[in-house]
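re: the backbone from monday

yeah here it is again, tokenized this time
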């Protein structure tokens, strides 16, 4: 962000009028004019040809002038040149100077320049007493040594305080970028540039926008506020407030933060975010949400806090999520306390009471590891207390698969096969479908409970289709009316469907926030209906 160049450029405009340059007690008319006469009616000395006035080390050249000693005024015309120590030169078609009020006006083709900068405008006012210069009908400042250029409708200059204000259609250009804004202010003492109104900072690589902002030249830091965003070819960052430090290569976003990486098809949202480009590291918190955009679906990961790490090529390497983790993607959702996601390996690890839902199945364990290929789930490994549950429709019964550890194999997000190793248990309800007058009647025959050392199960449409039991299986089939309560569910049974995320929006808002959003929506709908009724 090269906003500091704007500050350097505008700061050079201090050349305009050094204080006390024209306010000594007398003005001297240098000998050599072609004609000098006194108009008795007006009290004006009329001077023509090779006119030169001098005041201290400032000289005024012109073709003709009206010099009134009584009124303390000079009106100069034609080829006006005002020179200050050969470093400041001002040109115009006509000039009015009130020496008593210490006020000057320059008219027509006004040009002011020093050794580095040039100002052109059609008129310029300078109040020597207040030490302020003003143009009000478009002005252009250009650098003699570079291609820097600033245009605005109105410009105010306060040399003593080194404050410079530009308003209305402000456009700054150099070889690298262009800035357009409504108001630009710069203070030469604090080295701060301020932007007000819709502001665009554009170059070949990015477009930055804000409606209020500032940049500190001394510290090389700046802030973009109000609908602020930075849009690069591959990266979009938006927030209510964006802080940038050039020295540290750090971005800080506050409130409504939105980060979109189109190259790697990932995005982040949150209330607060830090991006450290030098360390390839990002931190997001407050309604934090990570997004991975796939061809057919999007994976959302929410947590209180997200950490994102990039490799040396700035490709996603590792995502860490802490506290209140929730996952949502199409037919797969999950919850846990913390999570790591290695994009390079395609491995996601869920820790502390993890639960995963894939279509009709609920998976849980002490930890769950998910393995991907081409952004599609291939396998889930449930370590210790592994459990897979599916609900039996229209009943309070559940098909269950439990064991010390499990491998669940997937076709996309549908479970295809589950291999249970160690203390394997299955409980599932036998059903028989009969068709009666085009109505399918499901009749439950009983509950099958089988224990074995290892079990392999095949699934179809979320239901157990085949089962292979190894090493001394122990089975029991209970008619529906004779099911023992203690054998109806495995020891670690826990059905947590109420925790299943319904959408990514459902994940990031608290119950209180959801109620507020619903209340606002209801109120808007109510007023909308009233408007339609009136129409």
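seq for it, each position gets an aa:
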């Amino acid at each position: 962000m090269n906003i500091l160049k704007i500050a350097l450029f505008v700061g050079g405009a201090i050349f305009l009028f050094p204080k006390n340059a024209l306010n000594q007690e007398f003005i001297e008319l240098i000998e050599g004019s072609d004609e000098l006469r006194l108009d008795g009616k007006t009290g004006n000395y009329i001077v023509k040809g090779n006119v030169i006035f001098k005041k201290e080390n400032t000289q005024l050249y012109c073709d003709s002038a009206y010099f009134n000693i009584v009124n303390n005024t000079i009106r100069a015309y034609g080829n006006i040149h005002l020179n200050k120590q050969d470093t400041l030169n001002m040109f115009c078609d006509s000039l009015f100077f009130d020496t008593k009020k210490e006020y000057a006006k320059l008219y027509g083709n006004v040009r002011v320049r020093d050794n580095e900068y040039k100002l052109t405008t059609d008129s310029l006012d300078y109040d020597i007493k207040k030490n302020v210069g003003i143009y009000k009908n478009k002005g252009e400042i250009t650098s003699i040594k570079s291609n820097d250029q600033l245009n605005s409708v109105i410009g105010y200059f306060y040399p003593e305080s080194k404050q410079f204000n530009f308003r209305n259609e402000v456009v700054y250009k150099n070889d690298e970028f262009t800035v357009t804004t409504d108001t630009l202010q710069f203070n030469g003492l604090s080295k701060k540039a301020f932007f007000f109104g819709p502001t665009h900072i554009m170059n070949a690589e990015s477009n930055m926008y804000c409606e209020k902002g500032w940049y500190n030249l001394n510290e090389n830091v700046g802030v973009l506020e109000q609908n602020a965003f930075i849009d690069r070819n591959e990266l979009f960052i938006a927030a209510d407030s964006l802080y940038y430090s050039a020295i540290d290569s750090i971005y800080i976003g506050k409130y409504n933060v939105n980060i979109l990486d189109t190259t790697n098809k990932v995005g982040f949202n949150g209330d607060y975010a830090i991006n450290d480009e030098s360390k390839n590291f990002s931190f997001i918190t407050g309604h934090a949400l990570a997004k991975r955009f796939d061809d057919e679906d999007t994976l959302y990961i929410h947590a209180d806090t997200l950490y994102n790490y990039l490799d040396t090529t700035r490709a996603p390497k590792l995502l860490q999520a802490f506290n209140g983790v929730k996952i949502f993607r199409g037919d797969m959702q999950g919850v846990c306390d913390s999570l790591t996601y290695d994009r390079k390996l395609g491995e996601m690890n869920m820790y502390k009471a993890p639960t995963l839902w894939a279509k009709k199945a609920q998976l849980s364990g002490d930890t769950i590891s998910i393995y991907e290929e081409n952004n599609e789930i291939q396998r889930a490994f449930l370590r210790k207390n592994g459990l897979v549950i599916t609900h039996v429709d229209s009943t309070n019964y559940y098909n269950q698969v439990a064991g010390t550890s499990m491998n669940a194999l997937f076709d996309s997000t549908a479970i295809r096969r589950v291999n249970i190793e160690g203390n394997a248990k299955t409980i599932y309800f036998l059903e028989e479908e009969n068709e009666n007058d085009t109505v399918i009647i499901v009749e439950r025959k009983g509950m099958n409970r089988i224990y074995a050392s290892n079990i392999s199960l095949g699934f179809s449409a979320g239901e157990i289709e085949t089962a292979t039991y190894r090493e001394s299986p122990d089975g029991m089939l209970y008619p529906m009316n004779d099911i023992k309560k203690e054998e109806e569910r495995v020891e670690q049974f826990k059905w947590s469907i109420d925790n299943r995320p319904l959408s990514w929006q459902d994940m990031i808002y608290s119950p209180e926030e959801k109620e507020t959003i619903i209340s606002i929506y209801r109120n808007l709908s109510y007023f909308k209906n009233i408007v339609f009724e009136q129409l």
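The two ends are 50 Å apart (CA to CA). DSSP finds three helices and 34 strands in the chain.
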